[in-house]
Amino acid sequence: MTRTFIYSFTPQPLDPSPGATIALDVSEIEDAGIREVLQTPGTAYGAWSILDVLLAPTGAGTPFIFRQPLGQAREVKVALSGLFGRFVARAYLERYFDLAIFAHLGNRVIDLDRRTRAKIKRLARGDLPDWIACKSDLTSLTVAEAKGCHDPGGPAKALARAWSQAGRIDVMVKGRKVTVKRIAVASRWGVANSVLADAYLSVRDPVDKGEPIDPQDKDAPFVGLLRLHVASMIEHLGHAELAQALRALTRQTFQRPLRDAAARARAVLDNAPIGQVEKTYDIGGLVGGIVTRAGPINDAIASTVDQEALARLNLRPVFVGIDRDLIRAAIDGEAETIRGRLAEMVSSDEFARPDRAGGWIIPLGTERRMVGGT
Fold first, then answer.
1. ∠ Cα 150 11 132 (to 5°)
2. The pLDDT of residue 193
3. What mean pLDDT comes out for the span 56-84?
4. What is the CA radius of gyration of the chain?
5. Average pLDDT taken over every residue of the chain
6. Is 363 exposed, middle or buried (0-12, 13-18, 19+ CB in 10 A)?
7. Residue 243 to residues 20, 35, 44, 338, 356, Cα–Cα distance (Å)
8. What span, in angstroms and rounded, lies between the C-alpha atoms of 222 and 328?
9. How far apart (Å, rounded) are the C-alpha atoms in residues 307 and 234?
């Protein structure tokens, strides 16, 4: 179901969707929320799954308005505004900027590839931006920060804070700053029957020019970014060892340790339980697990009886997985293979929903899909 926001974008010539309002589907926001809570450092939880009961039942194409305020205490409002702000911003970036591969920064400065000294450099004190991201064709390196607010005056102050935060890092390759897009996204919620009657989405997006990357090094930061994206997606889904092996690949300085780390990662991948989706031949083997309203379950693959029970209890179980062959290409560092794999046409069916980074979100239950293990 599509919902709308009052929309502003700076600078206007770069706006991917000019207009006074912008639309996002609630399912897009919820899918972005699933990916976000899995990838955010810390405990994963199921807050992605409650949008449907929080929004005013005004129908498709209407403004993104909550039934009631997001809590009464200021601390609760701030926390929930920040949470849903990240969901909405990620859905916006995925839909309108075609960003697909995300690594979270938190307060850590991270390596993308130590062999080429591709890394994130902190420029100022304070919280780092939320994400470093790129498109599925391994282009458009992007630094992004999301803010949600409940300010009666609108999202302008939150956007200014987000923009300041987006400027606190550079991406470096062999000691040289490279070109990135910097995007700040701020949301202000609308609440039915209150002075906060309108929902806003404001964006700032100039390009920050840097030095060109040497041709032999141009793919390294993107491959490293994909490895971090996959690692954070699967870690809480019963694949912590594989996640650690993928991260280890970004930290190798010399060729022999890198070969050893890649061999170990392949061995872990070969032994990982693989999800096979029933009733369809269009989805290959997936590395992942089941997420419910209460967060991920412990087992990478649950029995069909358990899947039916989770659906019957209205825990909204979904299988979240990433294509096994893409993970192998990421381990091998084969940029062209990665691009080819991600460029293959995939389309959602009645239930299963792909992203552009080799991932799938598949609602479970006897009337939808069941996932078996191999």
1. 70
2. 80
3. 79
4. 20
5. 88
6. middle
7. 42, 15, 15, 18, 20
8. 15
9. 19
Where helices occur in 97-216 by DSSP H, the ranges are 156-166
* Distance from C-alpha of 187 to C-alpha of 202, rounded to nearest angstrom: 6
Spell out a b/e string for 81-100, using b for 16 or more CB atoms within 10 Å of the CB, else e. Answer: bebbbbbbbbbbbbbebebb
Please write the tens of the pLDDT for every residue from 104-125: 987 676 899 999 999 999 999 9
Decide: 16 and 96 in contact? Cβ < 8 Å.
yes
**CA pair distance 209, 324, nearest whole angstrom:** 35
- Please report, as a single letter, which amino acid is at residue 162: A
Cα dihedral sign, 42-48-53-55: positive
- How many CB atoms lie under 10 A from the CB of residue 121? 12
In sequence order, the 6+-apart residues with CB closer than 8 A to the CB of 93 are 99, 133, 142, 144, 183, 185
Please provide residue 259's backbone torsions phi and psi, each rounded to the nearest 5 degrees.
Answer: -60, -40
Structure token digits, residue 240: 């912590």
How far CA 369 is from CA of 32, 166, 283, in Å, comes to: 20, 40, 12
* DSSP assignment letter at 317: -
CA distance 90 to 99: 9
Question: Is 227 in a helix, a strand, or coil?
Answer: helix
- DSSP conformational letter for 214: P
- The end-to-end CA distance of the chain, in Å, is 35
Q: Which residues contact 15 (CB under 8 A, 6 or more apart)?
A: 9
Distance (Å, rounded) from C-alpha 115 to C-alpha 119?
10
How far apart are alpha carbons 241 and 230 in whole angstroms?
12
